[in-house]
Amino acid sequence: xxxxxxxCAGFIGSTLSxxxxxxxxxxxxxxxxxxxxxPRIKRRNLAGILKHPRFEFHRADLNRMDxxxxxxxxxxxxxxxxQPGVRASWGQSxxxxxxxxxxxxxxLLEAVKGxxxxxxxxxxxxxxxxGKVDRLPMRESQRCSPHSPYGVTKMASENLCQLYHANxxxxxVSLRYFTVYGPRQxxxxxxxxxxxxxxxxxxxRIYGDGRQSRDFTFVADIVAANIAAAGRxxxxxxxxxxxxxxxxxxxxxxxxxQRAGVKIRLKRETKAQGDVDHTSADTSAARRDLKFRPVxxxxxxxxxxxxxxxxxxxxxxx
Length: 318
Ligand code: NAD
Ligand code: UGA
Known about the structure:
There is one protein chain. The chain has a seven-stranded parallel β-sheet with strand order 3-2-1-4-5-6-11, sandwiched between helices. Strands 7-10 form a two-stranded parallel ribbon. It has one domain: 3-Layer(aba) Sandwich (Rossmann fold), CATH 3.40.50.720. The chain is 39% helix and 18% strand. Helix 8 packs across helix 10. By secondary structure, it is an alpha/beta fold. The structure holds nicotinamide-adenine-dinucleotide and uridine-5'-diphosphate-glucuronic acid (UGA).
């Protein structure tokens, strides 16, 4: 496989790139190293693969590069690049979400639409496309109504994938990730913040009452599903990827405290705009078509994230 991985320096993109290289693939990685969070962390994410003989890194913005040339050289595309984050997507910053999520995805699809060499175009979609729902679990067939501006841009990007599939036969597969965690998790995300505060003896800030729940999914399980989707994903398909056990934030914190071996102090903040109360994935389609089997328990996944966080603190990266 010769893969293009966009967002290759990010949390999920770098983990995916490493796995692809370990499996014998050649990887062309693109990342603009945007400043949504400290680019030093992104450089560290790349450290293990930058010199790999089958890895080629392009530091570039998808909106400002010759994508046609790049696309001609690969047979699979994993489109991970985006401006992520639910809570930061209000106000002026929405422009960045439009540029990095909607416009960049459209530009990439345009570059792919005439190319016959692309076997699969795997898109990193999100549980945020569902919004607030009446009934759990969330199913791919139900109506989507995003609850945050970020969710709107992921919905639009996913819709663009569907359009290019229906009109031009681009073999898109959209994977709706449910709150991903593990080593390299972004600094704006809950577990990253909680572990950082717990290890530093600082107060953890919870938005709302802590009874919100997420179908937390370990990053290695997401990466495995991406690779499976490149092979077995149905062109035009949409798949939920959830970790399999919905957990309330307050219960996840107990596990975290136990695994970190520390006592934690909590402060409740007002609920964040754009946040939904609960997520839960019906993963029957991914289980059937992708043989998706999330294998990492929350306790084990958190332990791995805590070890990584400690290592990054020692190195002075965090
Ligand atoms: P991340 O921010 O760590 O990685 C995204 C990378 O994309 C960054 O390194 C950034 O520099 C790069 N990028 C952004 N805009 C770019 C552009 N215009 N050109 C080139 N590079 C650009 O985020 P992540 O958590 O690894 O998320 C990866 C993907 O998965 C995103 O599409 C995100 O929306 C999606 N997703 C993530 C989660 C999660 O829980 N982390 C859940 C659902 C969906
Ligand atoms: C995550 C990712 O950030 C999005 O990019 C992704 O699209 C989304 O998952 C998804 O599944 O689609 P989120 O569920 O908000 O979004 O993930 P976290 O940042 O880990 O937050 C989980 C919960 O913890 C939320 O209710 C949030 O309000 C809460 N939280 C977060 C806090 O209480 N305190 C914090 O400091 C941070």
